[in-house]
Amino acid sequence: MNKSDALTALAALAQEARLDVFRLLVQAGPEGLPAGQLGERLGLPSATLSFHLKELRHAGLVRFEREGRSLIYSAELANMNGLLAYLTENCCQGNPAACGVGLCDGTKLETPQQRKPS
Amino acid sequence: MNKSDALTALAALAQEARLDVFRLLVQAGPEGLPAGQLGERLGLPSATLSFHLKELRHAGLVRFEREGRSLIYSAELANMNGLLAYLTENCCQGNPAACGVGLCDGTKLETPQQRKPS
DNA sequence: TTCATATCTCCATTTGTATGGAAATATGGA
DNA sequence: TCCATATTTCCATACAAATGGAGATATGAA
């Protein structure tokens, strides 16, 4: 995952309809869901849904395959993971053990350095 | 993490300067970095940097504390983790073991359902 | 071939975001 | 008190993204 891909993916997810669609597909898993069902569940007009699905595709976050008259969309989990890894890369000066692997929470550090919220 | 917070955080990260700033702070860890050093390392004019830091703050992704004349910014790692958790919530029909915990890659599924990319 | 279904593309309108110079504010030192 | 430093706020300009109706396209069934 490079910076440009990460930016495209983040921009794709930074939109309510697309975030909803993506999370629904993540939850659906590799089986995926047909476009029509996505639109129905989320209450999106077809033109709007199609626009957002295209954005998600261009961002590499979903794929589709045709099945009869339906297009079955599913999440690109590997790319999602690449994005998460990009965000957390070298967390805490490359000392991931210091703040928890994968989900870095800083709580295990010896000097928690408490700070007031801004 | 609710949807609205997730959207705000994603929108904040979907911008090159802010993504750079945030990753630098994630890497710096709880010690953080002064605003000036961020601007210097990333080549951002002060007004531009300040604008982006404000966005990141409002999104709950960074905090700051004053130290003399400098403002020391650091990443809100707990909120970052909340965002990642929100994205991967109920991955693969709530069967996280099926696709790897934390970083869900789908490779461990019994029926990988290979699909052509779109 | 003709029709119904599923989805997409086109496009005009509306809305929101990024940029950076200039001036304002806050802190600490002389 | 006055100045230098660090950072912010103000603001005009420029650019990008979301929406959804109408019509186009693709598939399968009769």
Which tags fit this structure?
homodimer; mainly alpha; about 120 residues; three-stranded antiparallel beta sheet; DNA-binding; elongated
- Give the oligomer, counting copies of the same chain as homo and different chains as hetero: homodimer
Strand residues, percent of chain A: 5-15%
Separation of the first and last Cα atoms of chain A: 31 Å
**Any idea what the shape of chain A is?**
elongated
Average pLDDT figure of chain A: 85
Number of strands of chain A: 3
| Helicity level of chain A | 40-55%
User: How does CATH name the architecture of the domain at 3-78 in chain A?
Assistant: Orthogonal Bundle
Radius of gyration of chain A: 18 Å
CATH homologous superfamily of the domain at 3-78 in chain A - what is it?
A: Winged helix-like DNA-binding domain superfamily/Winged helix DNA-binding domain
Give the structural class of chain A: mainly alpha
Topology of helices and strands:
The structure is a homodimer of 118-residue chains.
Chain A: H1 3-13, H2 16-28, E1 33-34, H3 35-42, H4 46-58, E2 62-67, E3 70-75, H5 77-88, H6 91-94
Antiparallel strand pairs in A: 1-3, 2-3
The structure holds a DNA duplex (30 and 30 nucleotides).
